[in-house]
Design a protein that fits this description.
26% strand; alpha/beta; Alpha-D-Glucose-1,6-Bisphosphate, Chain A, domain 3; 543 residues; 7-stranded mixed sheet; TATA-Binding Protein
Length: 543
């Protein structure tokens, strides 16, 4: 066996975004593209010598091929052990758990999350650190700098590893351990939740549909919900992970999980509907006739977490990303625990979790999780909901209404404008920034701006500063609009407009959210001169 040192040149644009490097699959398949990035990760973490690494992905097209390349590069960079999910599969939260469980030095997670898969769709790669969480900004910056000066990469001339066989094998000095992707993750879930109570719930006739969207959570949800908790066979649908996700868009929101939404709004609806995304870290929760926004789900999970064994003694704090609604802040206040507002990106929760400052975190983009791993965790959220439903013996709709009557309702929706020419999107943001200090007191579509700023974050644990994390505009009367550009798209720019309107506990909570948010939307669109800059005001996606 030989190790090769291959000459290469920097490839432009290998800058990790909100969650790793995401590009079109064909870009990742270009000569040296994947190898350059993987070598840059090794260079950024101080080399691979003696390291133990977890490797797995969501099974999308190019997953297995990329894993073989990463294994060969791990061997050539001197790694001691790689732990790989069988068939190359690992959900993102399961990968995070395996890193922590095995005290690994980190892991490569192959996924473009909720983006479609296939040779003409998207691929992605991110590196998670030894705490199991996405590489923090300091480390992603080192990776990017390494990609800009790379001249060689190391790769071993070894046979492919049979990813289908569980067990241990060696390639030169590298030990390759193939593990069941579900087993240890399921064992972790059993320590967190009251499986007996959930089993009783199903035994009592509780009905559910879990849509795995042809993505990674199929095997996890089948093993846990059907095989362990006794949900009837057929509860989990679209359960086989496919490399093109059945040509779907594995994003659990009312648009992309429409068949589930339609069922839940019909008279055939089961008691609970849930879905997860490509790599299993996002979730959607919907009751019979009652969609739960991710922001509300975060607040409700935090308010009720003490009903599950893992959180029985209470939670220490709640963190949410800045664009997420203030619903969870109200819960934190009532519980008397700290509330944190971080930039978009799960990586910003890592320090708070490691420092024991927060127990539960969440984002409007359908991610919720806790200190059990360092990633958001779709099935975890579903199981916590099940645990709460089992104890409270109320429907999802009743829990929602009860929550709003206690805390008030934060009407919420995100409007996405996709594939905008990057220069136009940047021009809109630049113009908005330039006018920020003059906005207070001005009125747009009948709403007066109370205050406006650009969000920047000072990490309270390591003191690092992250600037330009989105523009916040607060209106008189409890409305808020947030403007930011997505960091996960692969085509042009995506403008995200986040809308929020608070209605107090004694207020009317039954208004259609898009109606309740209509005035904030009109004010936001007028304020940012949307029509003039991007030539449209109708969003592609409304969550
Ligand atoms: C990633 C990040 C999340 C973020 C989301 C959307 O999720 O992990 O923290 O909220 O992208 O980010 P953006 O608004 O920049 O597109 P995932 O599920 O794609 O890994």
């Amino acid at each position: 066996m030989t190790f090769q040192t291959v000459s290469t040149k920097p490839i432009e644009g290998q800058k990790p975004g909100t969650s790793g490097l995401r590009k079109k699959t064909r870009v990742f398949m270009e000569p040296h593209y994947l190898e350059n990035f993987v070598q840059s990760v090794f260079d950024a973490i101080g080399g691979g010598q003696g390291k133990k690494l977890v490797i797995g992905g969501d099974g999308r097209f190019f997953n297995a091929t990329a894993i073989q390349i990463i294994i060969k590069m791990a061997a050539a960079n001197g790694a001691a052990q790689v732990i790989v999910g069988q068939d190359g599969l690992l959900s993102t939260p399961a990968a995070s758990h395996l890193i922590r469980l095995n005290k690994a030095d980190g892991g490569f997670i192959l996924s473009a999350s909720h983006n479609p898969g296939g040779i003409d769709e998207d691929f992605g790669l991110k590196f998670n650190a030894a705490n199991g969480g996405p590489a923090p900004e300091g480390l992603t910056q080192l990776m990017f700098e390494a990609t800009e000066k790379i001249s060689t990469y190391n790769i071993a001339d070894i046979d492919d590893v049979d990813l289908t066989k569980i067990g241990s094998t060696s390639r030169a000095d590298l030990q390759v351990v193939i593990v069941d992707p579900v087993e240890s993750y399921q064992a972790l879930m059993e320590t967190l939740f009251d499986f007996d109570a959930i089993r009783d719930l199903f035994a009592g006739g509780f009905t559910m549909r879990f849509d795995a969207m042809h993505a990674i959570t199929g095997p996890y949800a089948t093993a846990i919900l059907e095989d362990t908790l006794g949900a009837p066979s057929g509860t989990v649908v679209n359960k086989i992970p496919l490399e093109d996700f059945g040509k779907g868009h594995p994003d659990p929101n009312p648009i992309w999980a429409k068949p589930l939404m339609d069922l839940m709004m019909s008279d055939k609806a089961p008691d609970l509907g849930a879905a997860s995304d490509g790599d299993g870290d996002r979730n959607m929760i919907v009751g019979r006739g009652a969609y739960v926004t991710p922001s509300d789900s975060l607040a409700i999970l935090a308010a009720n977490a003490h009903l599950a064994p893992a959180y029985r003694s209470g939670i220490v704090g709640i963190a949410r990303s800045m664009p997420t609604s203030a619903a969870s802040d109200r819960v934190a206040k009532k519980l008397g625990v700290e509330a944190f507002e971080t930039p978009t990106g799960w990586k910003f929760f890592g320090n708070l979790l490691d420092a024991g400052r927060v127990t539960i975190c969440g984002e409007e983009s359908a991610g919720t999780g806790s200190d059990h791993v360092r990633e958001k965790d779709g099935l975890w959220a579903v199981l916590l909901w099940l645990n709460i439903l089992a104890v409270r013996k109320m429907s999802v709709a009743e829990i929602l209404r009860d929550h709003w009557h206690t805390y008030g309702r934060d009407y919420y929706s995100r409007h996405d404008f996709e594939a905008i020419a990057t220069d136009k999107a940047n021009a809109l943001m630049t113009d908005l920034r330039a006018r920020l200090t003059d906005l207070a007191g001005q009125s747009f579509a009948g709403l007066t701006v109370a205050s406006a700023d650009e969000f920047s974050y000072l990490d309270p644990v390591d003191g690092s500063q992250s600037n330009q994390q989105g523009v916040r505009v607060y209106f008189e009367g409890g409305g808020r609009a947030v403007f930011r550009l997505s960091g996960t798209g692969t085509e042009g720019a995506t403008l995200r407009l986040y809308l929020e309107q608070y209605a107090p506990p004694e207020g009317d909570h039954g208004v259609d959210p898009q109606l309740a948010l209509g005035q904030v939307r009109d004010a936001a669109q007028s304020l940012c001169r949307m029509e003039a800059f991007i030539g449209r005001t109708t969003p592609d996606v409304m969550t």
